[in-house]
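step: validate -> pass
step: tokenize input -> pass
step: predict -> running
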Amino acid sequence: MEPSLAVSIGKMSLDGPAMLASGILGISLDVFGRLRRSGAAAIVSKSLSREPWEGYANPTIVGVGGGGWINAVGLSNPGAENFADMIRQNRDVPIIVSLVGSDPADFEYMTGQFRECNILGYELNLSCPHVAKVGLEVGDDLGLVKEIVSVVGSTGKPVIAKVGLGTVNYLDTVGAAVDAGADAITAINTVRAMAVDIHARRPVLSNGFGGLSGSPIKPIAVRCVYEITSNYDVPVIGCGGVSTWEDVVEFMLAGASAVQVGSAIGDRWVDVFSEINAGVESYMRKHGYSETEEMVGLARS
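step: predict -> pass
step: emit ->
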């Protein structure tokens, strides 16, 4: 029997282990469809705020070598209401809506915009490292994390809390989200970083610092997945430096039920998901696994 790539993440079932990460090609339904046809199991939208945000002025992204990027886009997005209008007719693409805000009222308002939309669930951005009063500042407030997860959970849709490395122990943020009923955790977000132009003698990015993504953060993300799943009985979606099928297998062995692909999209965005799916399936066949869950967490045993 051929191995099945299907994965279960709490109340969600997907037909493959790899989905698009938030912030990457995440606002066009046409692009969503193309990614879906190329093998993406789900699409996580750009993080949406209560009102449209313009984000930061250019430059907003810089390559730092070794497959790494630092970005400070500033969470530019069309706002929850406008995005809901954009996807209201969607029937074919599994969409997870990413939300960012400062208080429970923001999230209550935003989820209200999607009542008539066909979506899988919500991912809560509790970990953006470069925008004030949202992201990490919210994720570091454990009481606020619980309130937000509870508010979004009251919609009946699956809730995924995306955590990062802030000023508090990220495992405490995970614990707060799990206690409030989060169905899954995404780990991790970008890591706060900076690049300086030695000729201009000033930071490269207009915001000064941003978030490091890509291959350089993969070992950190793998470690976090391992620690979370060693401490909490909650499905985890690995995110950070995933670019090949080998990366996907590594994350799953560390404890991830699925992964998200972001920076690696680049020039390969049409092919990256099909390449990952083919590679994971071949690995499963070679090692005699019929279901992906048979691999999850084996590195801990």
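step: describe -> Residues 272-287 form the longest helix (16 residues).
step: cleanup -> pass
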